[in-house]
Amino acid sequence: MRRNRSIRGVPVDLAVILRDVGTLLVMQAAMLGATSLVALAFAEFQPAAGFFAAGVACVVVGEGMRRAFASAPDPKMKHGMVIAASGWFATAAFGAVAFLAVAWTTTPETMASFVPAGRDTSGWAVTVMGTTSKSSLVYFRHPLHAMFEAMSGWTGSGLTMAIHEPSLPRSVQFYRSFIQYVGGVGVIVLTVSILSRPGSGSYALYQSEAREEKIHPSVVSTVRTVWKIFLAYSAVAIVVLGVALAASTDQSAFDVAWQALNHGMTGLSTGGFSVTDNSIGTYNAPVVEAVLLPIMAAGAIAFPVHYGVLANRDLGDLLGDLQTRWLLVLFAVGIVALGAQLLVVVPTEGFGRTMGAVLGFSPGSVDAVRDATFQWVSALSCTGFQSSPIGDYGAGAKVMLAVGMTIGGAAGSTVGGIKVIRAYTVSKGIQWQFQRVFLPASTVVTVSMGDRMLDRSEMDREFSEAAIVSLLWVLLLVASSIVLANVSPGFSYADALFEVASAQGNVGLSAGITGPSMDPLAEAMFVLNMWIGRLEIIPVLVFARSILSGLDP
Fold first, then answer.
1. What is the pLDDT of residue 204?
2. Interatomic CA distance for residues 357 and 436, integer angstroms
3. In the Cβ-directed half-sphere of 516, how many Cα atoms lie within 13 Å?
């Protein structure tokens, strides 16, 4: 950083970062304002006041930063990664402010009114920060729980501190879904589309969210097309899911519409937050699960592929894409492998359905295939919807799901994890490195990667990038799971590995460790795992280096 250049006494590099992080906060203020209107529509006046107060805080801080450093130059790549890392963290922090504000402006008496009538709520009452309530809103009076929920929402992770989601105000249910919906595509992608900033500045921000693929030469045009596709798919997903819920449940029309809206938003964005007590397992409806399968899978496919299919009206474009082909292969192989695990290992007693070691086309085997299909697609797509109690799965099934959550879906989609293309590049690179041993140094070698032919230097570069990110990702996974296993008595290492893979992969499936009673060290660690996992590690390392070096890249 050039120390002799400054804006309002702030070094120019820091001014660039603060200006763009301020823009992200202004964007969140608009979302909080919209959520305040939702709260007023449901006559939730105290939560509305909380959301409004949080929105004002975002405006004051964000707009203040924007105005103070409006003359800062466009960001470069060195700024982009720091903006991404600090911007995502700041967005989650102000999201936590929203949860805290709503929880503290809502009285215990009002909280009680949000608890569903006619439900067995024995055991729901808890005391948090001196306040006792049966509504899970009370958990958000604790700052760490609020930060966890906000980070989980914005990063599309789906793990939650809200034990009983139906006891939350409608506006809080909506806000949780809303932040997952926007966070799934990317807060910086949204900002780029609003700012319409031409040139290298937008591209630097676009890349900083671990995105490379462009639909159009212009990044602004690309992100606007992404949002058009996302909105169109969302409308279809909500309608189809609403029909499935109406056909398979006896709920009121309003409840059907509300649940379809929220699950459609969090399903397509591969976020996984739910508004029901046991996620999708609440319905125990094969029709609902069948409708959600293509919604989750669509969220795991890269947006440029969706654009190609829609523009050319040719489903053949799906199989023409390397990542999509391998994603479909992984879906098929994983379903078979997990189904075999559930059939052989999962005990019948206490599992909640008729699963067990059964032979033939019995109800147990049907349930095993059904659960294996839904849970594997949910894990690999990093969605996190849960249709059965994974805590009762065997260690082999949990490790298998952890592998799926670690790989994730396609780069350029809404998923977390390492991404299919990196896993493919690492495996291809290992093959290539082994073959090179038997070739003369002068041999001209090319490697086929989908529709591309890479020479030696290109393959070295791509393999190195994929291997470094994958290695760092796995090292963090192993280290975090060791920590979690040591602070979580009563759970196995397979449980800990599964839970960390879910947090770091931004998935949301749980074996039962995550919750308000978990160790505070583990909860704080998960906040970092979710943040780091969403940004694919490198931007966070750049951010940490910048902090240690006084923001001098």
1. 46
2. 47
3. 20
What pLDDT is attached to residue 335?
96
pLDDT one-digit tens code per residue, 541-550:
888 888 777 6
Q: Which residues pair with 11 in a beta bridge?
A: 6
* Prediction pTM value: 0.90
User: CA-CA distance, 443 to 438, in Å (whole number)?
Assistant: 10
- Kindly write down the DSSP assignment for every residue of 20-36, as one continuous string: HHHHHHHHHHHHHHHHH
User: Is 263 exposed, middle or buried (CB count within 10 Å of its CB: 0-12, 13-18, 19+)?
Assistant: buried
Amino acid at 337: A
Q: What is the pLDDT of residue 184?
A: 82
The residue type of 403 is: V
Split at pLDDT 50, 70, 90, the class of 193 is very low
Tokens read off for 342: 């559930």
C-alpha torsion sign, points 413, 417, 420, 425: positive
> Which segment, 2-11, 74-83, 136-145, is predicted with the most confidence on average?
136-145
Label residue 199 exposed, middle or buried (CB < 10 Å: 0-12, 13-18, 19+).
exposed
Separation CA 175–CA 169 (nearest Å):
10
Average pLDDT over residues 217-224: 68
Element (H, E) at 90: helix 77-105
Q: What is the pLDDT of residue 313?
A: 81
Side chain identity at residue 471, one-letter code? L
Q: Which stretches within 106-209 are classed as H helix?
A: 108-113, 143-154, 170-185, 187-195, 200-208
- State the pLDDT at residue 206: 44
Residue 124 burial (C-beta neighbours within 10 Å; 0-12, 13-18, 19+) = middle
Query: Mean pLDDT, the chain, as a whole number?
Result: 86
Bridge partner residues of 10 (DSSP): 7
What are the residues whose beta carbons fall under 8 Å from the beta carbon of 311, sequence distance 6 or more?
none
Give dist(CA 387, CA 371) in Å, integer: 7
CA angle 312, 289, 376 (to 5 degrees): 80
Among candidate residues 296, 341, 352, 337, the one with its CA nearest the CA of residue 507: 296
